[in-house]
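Subject: sequence -> structure tokens, single chain

Hey, anyone have a minute? Need the predicted structure for the following. Not urgent.
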Amino acid sequence: MTQTPGPPPPYYPPPVAYAPPARVEPVPGSQFGVAIPSSTPVPSGMAVGSLLVGIASILVSFAVACLGLAGSSAGWGAWAGGAFAVLSGLLGIGGIVLGVLGRRQVRRAAGLTGRGLATAGLICASIGLLFTLVAGVGAVLLSFAIPTQ
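Reply:
Had a minute. Here:
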């Protein structure tokens, strides 16, 4: 004699493990309290933006140098390099401003991190501005030093 299997046992999902609250504040006049959950620190958006814009400033400053060198014999190197130098300069200035504001925001806010990101953004933006200045001046000097064809 065979037994027919019964219905499968019901599925119970595993219990959800909640993180313990950071603190519990009692509600005056009752037996209840308000649980304040803990939160993970978040990096500052200005600090991240400073790093990204600073890196972009360095990359565009290399484009300034490449265009200045490539077009110096044809006579268009200083013009093309100068156009990209304006972009790289604006990116560098924006990176410096975002880095300073990001460091200030991290210092003043309790749940924000990213002081190192803001510092790295400041450094990258400053290097990008320096490279832009050197490459722009080099492109102009090459355009005057090499006769056009």
